[in-house]
UniProtKB/TrEMBL annotation:
<keyword id="KW-0067">ATP-binding</keyword>
<dbReference type="GO" id="GO:0005524">
    <property type="term" value="F:ATP binding"/>
</dbReference>
<dbReference type="InterPro" id="IPR008995">
    <property type="entry name" value="Mo/tungstate-bd_C_term_dom"/>
</dbReference>
<keyword id="KW-0500">Molybdenum</keyword>
<feature type="domain" description="Mop">
    <location>
        <begin position="297"/>
        <end position="361"/>
    </location>
</feature>
<dbReference type="InterPro" id="IPR004606">
    <property type="entry name" value="Mop_domain"/>
</dbReference>
<dbReference type="InterPro" id="IPR003439">
    <property type="entry name" value="ABC_transporter-like_ATP-bd"/>
</dbReference>
<dbReference type="InterPro" id="IPR027417">
    <property type="entry name" value="P-loop_NTPase"/>
</dbReference>
<dbReference type="InterPro" id="IPR005116">
    <property type="entry name" value="Transp-assoc_OB_typ1"/>
</dbReference>
<dbReference type="InterPro" id="IPR003593">
    <property type="entry name" value="AAA+_ATPase"/>
</dbReference>
<feature type="domain" description="ABC transporter">
    <location>
        <begin position="12"/>
        <end position="248"/>
    </location>
</feature>
<dbReference type="InterPro" id="IPR017871">
    <property type="entry name" value="ABC_transporter-like_CS"/>
</dbReference>
<keyword id="KW-0813">Transport</keyword>
<dbReference type="Pfam" id="PF00005">
    <property type="entry name" value="ABC_tran"/>
</dbReference>
<keyword id="KW-0547">Nucleotide-binding</keyword>
<dbReference type="InterPro" id="IPR050093">
    <property type="entry name" value="ABC_SmlMolc_Importer"/>
</dbReference>
<dbReference type="Pfam" id="PF03459">
    <property type="entry name" value="TOBE"/>
</dbReference>
């Protein structure tokens, strides 16, 4: 029979945290909530505070304010001076470089957690063997970490973190140490295991692809603050900062809309196809910009002179950085680049059809996806 306490724990979020951490002049001040079974990706530029957040949740860094509650259990509470040490938390961590014990076999690495939780040696090894089987490494149970490939070591680290049945699983850049081929396989493997994990999962990553494939929800951190959160579709449709726009591959500008005209901060105007009024964002993909050697005649409503500030290959097209009244990114075919004789410093005309733009109100935080 379920006790009232157990029932309350079952209903509690996997994570309910407000993290305030001071590190010299840097302050992390972020609220994070994860439902049981939910996978959340924490994304942000270098120095945004992602690792700081992960270390605080793991109990490796004390919070200076706020709280951390995992499945109803208070692990940190700065005001009440509560701090549960890392090894007493129901939190599993997969570190970026896995941190497997080099002198222990894969089996003993995985058995370590259950053993620390008080399981007998035989029971711990049985649990570990089961987990290695699940991650497809049964035949490598007796190998030492140095004999494992990067992908295999990652699976052992995942098995080790999951073997203790954590209420919260933390993954720090889980695929960044792998080469591209292994990364794809390991990502698919990880996806499968995260979908089965009944606790909450937080993945810290730089890589939007990992986030989009692995996570149910994205939380974007910049300079220690959550700037946007929501599912991938909402964030892609309505990025709220330059970083988020670049992440989803969009050009993004902020301005003031009156009908179908948006005036940007420096006075430049863009014509859009949907009317809007008041503070607004205008976004368009790099493929929406057409480049011409001379001022184009005809229909495009938005035309401006720009200078090529950089060129790089991006998949099967060229990504062109353009400076001018708008700093933008354009994607064009190599044939178009050759016809235009594009190189850094070239002068071109950029054209953008009003129908290729997306406009949406800049309502501060109140219309943020939740
Ligand atoms: N040991 C430390 N002492 C003082 N400040 C630190 C320490 N480690 C990190 N910081 C500062 O904390 C801030 C956040 O760093 P953090 O490593 O959490 O960011 P991040 O988002 O994980 O970045 P990255 O993606 O580069 O790993 C940075 O400004 C960094 O300089």
């Amino acid at each position: 029979m379920t006790t009232p306490d157990a029932a309350a724990r079952d209903q509690a979020p996997a994570l309910d945290a407000h993290l305030v951490v001071d590190r010299d002049s840097f302050r992390l001040d972020a609220a994070l909530r994860i439902a049981p079974g939910e996978v959340v990706a924490l994304l942000g530029p270098n120095g945004a505070g992602k690792t700081t957040a992960l270390r605080a949740l793991a109990g490796l860094l004390p919070v200076s304010g706020g709280h951390v509650t995992v499945r109803g259990r208070r692990l940190d509470d700065a005001a009440a001076r509560v701090f549960v040490p890392a090894d007493k938390r129901s939190v599993g961590v997969v570190f970026q470089d896995y941190l497997l014990f080099p002198h222990l076999s894969a089996l003993d690495n995985v058995a370590f957690g259950p053993r620390c939780q008080g399981a007998s040696r035989a029971k711990s090894r049985a649990i570990a063997a089961e987990w290695l089987e699940r991650v497809g490494l049964a035949e490598h149970a007796h190998a030492k970490p140095r004999r494992l490939s990067g992908g295999q070591a990652q699976r052992v680290a995942l098995a080790r973190a999951l073997a203790v049945g954590p209420d919260l699983l933390l993954l720090d850049e889980p695929l960044s140490a792998l080469d591209a081929g292994t990364r794809m396989d390991t990502r698919a493997h990880l996806h499968h295991h995260l979908a089965d994990h009944p606790g909450g999962t937080l993945i810290v990553t730089h890589d939007p692809l990992d986030a989009l494939i692995l996570a149910d929800r994205l939380v974007i951190l910049e300079a220690g603050r959550v700037v946007q959160e929501g599912d991938a579709a909402t964030i892609t449709a309505r990025p709220r900062t330059d970083y988020v726009a670049r992440l989803v591959g969009l050009n993004l500008f902020r301005g003031r809309a009156v009908g179908d005209t948006v005036t940007l901060a420096d006075g430049f105007t863009l014509t859009t196809s949907e009317p809007c009024d008041g503070p607004a964002f205008v976004a368009f993909p790099p493929t929406a910009l057409a480049l011409h050697p001379r001022r184009p005649e005809g229909s495009p409503r938005n035309v401006w002179a720009a200078t090529v500030a950089g060129l790089q290959r991006h998949g099967d097209h060229l990504r062109v950085q353009l400076a001018g009244p708008l700093n933008t990114t354009a994607d064009i075919t190599p044939a178009a680049a050759a016809a235009l004789r594009l190189e850094t410093g070239s002068e071109v005309w950029a054209a953008l059809k009003a129908t290729e733009t997306r406009v949406y109100p800049d309502g501060g935080d109140q219309d943020q996806a939740r």
